């Protein structure tokens, strides 16, 4: 009798939890931008001026962050590493763009925020490699 091996990607996989950490983080950051846009902007690296228009941009960024997290979360929940990997790869453009935006606005002296966005992009790239190597159900 042949035993069937269970080889499904999911909560027992490191790449699953590496991805889940990013999902939780981006949803948290999005919620922070909606609930406290000025605090979110400080954390991003580009402070907001306290105007209605500036706060609106914070809310706009917040809902986009939450949407990004939910998209990846859906692929995590259905345990599809391939779709998660492709989505995660596409999403790398976000921290890269954030890093370039901070560089353009604050210059190279804002090393802390440049590293936050840059390391996030690298983390996502490494995690995407693990996701592509994961076997689906």
UniProtKB/TrEMBL annotation:
Ranges in a coiled coil: none
Spans through the membrane: 16-35, 55-78, 85-105, 111-132
InterPro entries in the cross-refs: DUF4267
Keyword annotations of the record: Membrane, Transmembrane, Transmembrane helix
Pfam family, one: DUF4267
Protein name: DUF4267 domain-containing protein
Taxonomic lineage of the native organism: Bacteria, Pseudomonadati, Bacteroidota, Sphingobacteriia, Sphingobacteriales
